[in-house]
From TrEMBL:
Entry superkingdom: Bacteria
Protein name: MotA/TolQ/ExbB proton channel domain-containing protein
Membrane topology note: Multi-pass membrane protein
MotA/TolQ/ExbB proton channel domain segment(s): 55-120
Organismal lineage: Bacteria, Pseudomonadati, Bacteroidota, Flavobacteriia, Flavobacteriales
Keyword check for Transport: yes
Keywords of the record: Cell membrane, Membrane, Protein transport, Transmembrane, Transmembrane helix, Transport
GO biological process: protein transport
Subcellular locations according to the entry: Cell membrane; Membrane
Length: 142
């Protein structure tokens, strides 16, 4: 916990650090994953508002959260593979590779799946909590 607080209050702000990582991971895939994250948050809020709705309506909202979260992971993995191909093409043309250069290239290719995975974890935790909060169906309770 202290490490997180220390990290948030460093010279460079948390959001500046986040934007730097988004730019470093590739503006297109990272922006796409960020948009999916915001869409998932919208679907989570919509599902929370439908806790007392009909079961089909609630299940559809929760399913949308899961699908958007899964899409974020898949997009992250897809762009990681594209990044790995680009890194290996660049190293093939260089011939002699330095380990620091390889590590930097691999770090950049790992950023989209990490952000996609974080989006997925948040989405799955939200669906778990939403399903837990929905105690019983309103139709059977009457």
């Amino acid at each position: 916990m202290i490490t997180v607080i220390f990290y948030l209050f460093q010279d460079q702000g948390f959001f500046q650090q986040l934007l730097a990582r988004i730019y470093e991971g590739g503006p297109f895939p990272m922006t796409l994953i960020l948009l999916l994250f915001f869409l998932m948050i919208f679907f989570i809020i919509r599902s929370a508002l439908k806790l007392r709705a009909l079961p089909q309506s609630f299940r559809k909202s929760v399913s949308l959260v899961n699908q958007v979260a899964l899409l974020a992971v898949i997009i992250g993995l897809f762009f990681q593979l594209i990044g790995l191909i680009q890194v290996f093409d660049a190293f093939e043309s260089l011939g002699n590779i330095q380990p620091a250069l390889l590590a930097g290239g691999l770090k950049v290719t790992l950023l989209p799946p990490i952000f996609g995975g974080l989006t997925f974890i948040i989405g799955r935790m939200a669906t778990f909590i939403l399903n837990w909060l929905r105690k019983e169906d309103p139709v059977t309770a009457a």
